[in-house]
Amino acid sequence: MKKFLIIFLALLTLSGCAPREEKASETIFCMDTVMDIQIWGQDAQTALKQVKTLLQELEATWSANDGKSFLAALNRGEVKPNAEQQALLDRAEELSRYTGGAFDPKLLSLMQLWGFASEIYHVPDEAEIKKVMKDGRWDLGALIKGYAAERIVQLLEPLKVSRAVMNLGGNVQTYGNKPDGTAWRVAIQNPNGGDPVGMVSVEGSEAVVTSGNYQRYFIGDDGKRYHHILDPQTGAPADNELSSVTVLCADGAKADALSTALFVMGLEKGSAFWRQNPGFEVVFVTQTGEVYATEGVDLSHCEFEVLSRED
Ligand code: AMP
Ligand code: MG
User: Fold this and answer.
1) What are 65-116's pLDDT values in tens digits?
2) Which of 141, 173, 180 is nearest to 156 (CA)?
3) Which of 69, 162, 230, 300 is deepest in the core (most CB within 10 A)?
4) Which of helix, strand or coil describes residue 12?
């Protein structure tokens, strides 16, 4: 009887000590986009608070269009980067070299010329483009949300967070595993609206980042659509067969830079780049609705063509 009582008390104590998991979630507006954050863990509310603070700090530092940011001051030549800031600038330059210049973190003047910062849009002529093309002012818009996701993952690691998933305006980041052992499933948005193009499954911590011509654009007086991903070689919106590119990669900043770069490269050059470079997977969606997925992607709910390394 005494033995049973001890076991019963031990079980009671254990269950009393078992960490209770809570969920915290919030939708915020940051970095010029809507962000949805969901966190599960012992103290998910505290983790969520810290994530929001980090996002606000990163926005205040790296916004190219807020005149009070560190990046704006750097572009005016007023400040020098500290070691952490320099490391991100170096990484951006490295990713630019890696993508043969398709990702170019210094296109701010061109973005402003087209009116994407002010939303007072303008289709510039070649002379206007040429004038500002190489003036080298920083714009990390194609990388910063992926970098933020990466920093959030580092923040969550010591915080007893069991899992998290967030959508930072087209940049989905997963963290940890779902308790039932199933994979995270991330929808790829349909560039033409309506049901998603398909679902990708990912395990653990992974960045799933989409760049698309439908995310930010204006219609010119000529009736043409001008979107926000510029081809650094022409200074004009990348003009090819693609509607969107989704990159899956463990490294958030790299995934983000690559989604932009592969969009600029187009389907043929983009798939050749993937064949030559390991460490990430891609889903390409064309303007005519065809879907191409590299062989490592677990894509469901759609018909698609598989791109293999040997092609
Ligand atoms: P994303 O949505 O990640 O593809 O990034 C697009 C944003 O990055 C734009 O709004 C610009 O601020 C900037 N951008 C546009 N074209 C490029 C490019 N070729 N390389 C790097 N950044 C770019
Ligand atoms: Mg990007």
Assistant:
1) 999 999 999 999 999 999 999 999 999 999 999 999 999 999 999 999 999 9
2) 173
3) 230
4) helix
Which ligand is located closest to the Cα atom of residue 249?
2
Structure confidence at residue 134 (pLDDT):
86
Distance between CA atoms of residues 18 and 68, nearest Å: 47
Q: Is 115 exposed, middle or buried (0-12, 13-18, 19+ CB in 10 A)?
A: middle
* 165-211: pLDDT as tens digits: 999 998 999 999 887 878 999 999 999 888 999 999 999 999 999 99
Q: What is the pLDDT of residue 18?
A: 56
Question: Count of alpha carbons within 13 Å of 243, Cβ hemisphere only?
Answer: 16
Verify whether ligand 1 is closer than 6 Å to residue 105 (CB atom): yes
Q: In the chain, what are the helix, strand and coil shares in percent, each to the nearest 5? A: 35, 25, 40
Q: How far apart are the first and last CA of the chain?
A: 72
What is the maximum span of the chain, computed from C-alpha positions, in angstroms?
93
What DSSP designation does 118 have? T
Ligand 1 proximity of 265 Cβ (cutoff 6 Å): no
Of 107, 108, 119, 216, the residue with max ligand 1 atoms within 8 A of its CB, to mutate for a pocket test, comes to 107
* pTM value > 0.85: yes
Of the CA atoms within 13 Å of residue 222, those in its CB half-sphere come to: 6
43 vs 26, 71, 158, 181, 184, CA distance in Å? 15, 34, 12, 22, 22
Quote the DSSP letter at residue 85: H
As given in the structure block, the two tokens for residue 48 are: 């969520």
Q: Which two tokens stand for residue 77?
A: 């030549």
